[in-house]
Amino acid sequence: MSVKAFELVPAVERDLLMGDKARINIECIECCGKHLYVGTNDCFIHHFLLDEVTSAKGKLSYSSQKLLHKYLGLKKPVAELRAASALERLIVLCDGIVFLVDMVTLETVPSAAGGGAKIRGVAAFCINENPVNGDPFCVEMGILSSKRRTVQIFMVYEDRVQLVKEVGTPEQPCAVSVDGYFLCLALATQYMILNYNTGASQDLFPYNSEERRPIVKRIGREEFLLAAPGGLGMFANAEGVSQRAPVNWSESVIGAAVCFPYVVALDESFITIHSMLDQQLKQTLSFRDGHILQDFEGKVILASTKAVYVLVPLPLERQIQDLLASHRVEEALILTEGAQRNIPKDKFQILHKRILQQAGFIQFGQLQFLEASEHFRKGQLDVRELISLYPLLLPTSSSFTRCHPPLHEFADLNHLAQGDKDKVLRCKKFLISYLGEVRSTEVANGCREDVDTALLKLYAEQDHDSLLDLLASDNACLLADSIPWLEKYHKYFALGLLYHYNGQDSAALQLWIRVADGDLQDPTRSDLYEYVVDFLCSCSNLDLVWQYADWALQKDPTIGIHIFTKRPVSKDWPQLNSDDVISYLGKHVQAQLLYLEYLVLERRIQKEKFHTHLAVLYLERVTMLLSQSPIDEAQLSSARDRLQALLRESNLYRVQILLGKMENCEQLLLERATLHGKLEEHDKALHILVHKLRDFRSAEAFCIWASSCRDSAYQQQLFHLLLGVYLDGNRPGKSQAMAAVDLLNRHGEVFDAVRVLRMLPEGWSLQLLRPFLGRAVRASVHACRTSQIALGLANSENLQLLHDRLKERKKPIFVSEKKGCHLCHNTFSEPDVVCLPGGVPVHTQCVAQRVRDSPTKRLLTNSTNHT
């Protein structure tokens, strides 16, 4: 696709160059700064001064002034001119002779010896723009011989030339370009790279110089541009490798130049301009009778046979903006990145970011959101530029103003979409995605409030699931802008979260309660009541807890009580006083019961008033259920189980209070028996269980429970007491007798067999008690034998200890003045010592003092030995 990259501007008009001499033609040109030199076919050199003139509209033109012209004295055209500005000399090729001309006077420079500084038999020459010689007053030059297959390397000085190297070639060379030690040559049938220092060569590709004019052009360090077969412009480096794709130009190209990032080619009718970045044809200019195209220090100059023109590049920024205006985003980006080498770093970074941002908006307008997002990120777009396209999304307090000049052509999203609702929806979804990605990055720094508020509005409008995530996390949503937007879309739960995030918990609770009570409609959470309860559980403002707990308890006391029972127990968290809570729950009996269960059964708080209160509430619950008609057996059974479990497991409640409340209730005999057990009134308890309830299993269970954590004697006493109750009276009933037999047979190991035999009626059959008696006999025999074994082992151990003692007494204990007491560390002056276990001698007075000072220490075994 075309782009206007250059303008063709006249530099030297025909009349100024040759006047009325129609037969004079331009043969070669050279430019050095503002100085233009033109060689003609009549052996003249014309010197012009070119001045750039910029019009009020910014259009560039050239004003040329002829300074001098000079006849060289030869009757041949001036074939080639090259400036050696360091020497203030022109290197001229005319009639096969290379010689030097003064750049100011155009006089031929004589040599130091008086003759001309000339080289004869020259077909072509070029200057090495990357010289290997470090002399600043010397120019390196490569020369093709017209008669030999050689390339000669000369050093050119102010008044002389010096041959330094001559290398042969396989064919007659017809064009050459030099960079450092590397020669790029066009031979008769091929191109090649030759290192004249080492002699190494590399063939490139074939080429027929008789069919078309060869082109060898140095375009950079160790890189050349060549005219290849098939109308291709090929790039090759010093190693013979092409690192750029070729450009496809005309097969009749007669000249080429490089003005980065473009390759300019000249044929008989046109100037073609290709990009080196994407190899595409960018511009074509009509140019008749052109035969010279050269670039001089970035300035591209063309010449026909009669006039000289300058190909003026348009500023890269203008070219890029033209491409963007045509929505050619990729070309604009490629050109921008390629222009990096021609623009200062700081300026390029600013330009590059802006171009990326513009490209992003173009692709945004084309709904290419993936590409737009990538360009926005790379260009570090102020995200408010994008948000501002969406009406009402920016907060009213935002001070943002759009970039000038503008980055896009859209007034707002409605202008972009032109009434297409689907396009609007897609654009909003993209903004949601993009803001979600960048809100936590550096892109959103300094405008977090604008970003989060816009994101909240979009989430609310689109009923997006991420709205709650935004508000439940760290955010910078502006309350004043967000409230009407959330109310508009009935997002009351989300609004409550925003109130909470801004420290307005009371407002949040009021709003949520209205939703839970049905005054406001918001289907966000079906479990909003449970959420409010959980919120109050973790609320640090105790005033709010007391204020709204009543509402929660009235709605459902089993869930509402979680406000008090699920509250975090931590020193760092405000705690509620348990007594205050119980008093507060006085009008919520069920909740009060649940709270007391939490204190007593879950937290295991050891306070008599809590245990007694819970037991009384359990008892009242059971009493209430008993008074109902008909009685709900399932609820009653559950309530009695709770009461009985508490009565058995707790030791803190006031037994007498509970007994007083049960005194006239014959339906709670089992519970009364448990209370008598707590008072150690086991006879009363067993009397109730055996004679009133006739629940023999419960009687046995009572004995086991009442004797738990007690010694075996206490347990035996209880079981004997139960047996006595069974056998109470001269003639116990049959059921009691059978219960007594079962008790003995099941728990025989607990009883004293002799005592039991004394208690049993004389008329009972021993056959009934066979299991009990058999177990008793075996237990007695086992105990006897165990005692005998234990006695034998003790005797054996005693004998062993006596043996060891006697053995130790036979060993002597040595005491000398060199030995010290283990206790006082002084030496022994007398033979009287006490020997500690292990044979350690100490002073007798030290041991006595030790015993007096520490009477609770381990007793020492004293043994006085006289040495």
UniProtKB/TrEMBL annotation:
GO cellular component, one term: membrane
Recorded superkingdom: Eukaryota
Gene Ontology biological process terms, A to Z: autophagy; endosomal vesicle fusion; intracellular protein transport
Any matching Pfam family: Vps39_1
Ranges occupied by CHCR repeats: 566-735
InterPro entries linked: Clathrin_H-chain/VPS_repeat, CNH_dom, Vam6/VPS39/TRAP1, VPS39/TGF_beta_rcpt-assoc_1, VPS39/TGFA1_Znf
Domain CNH, first and last residues per copy: 23-300
Name used for this protein in its record: CNH domain-containing protein
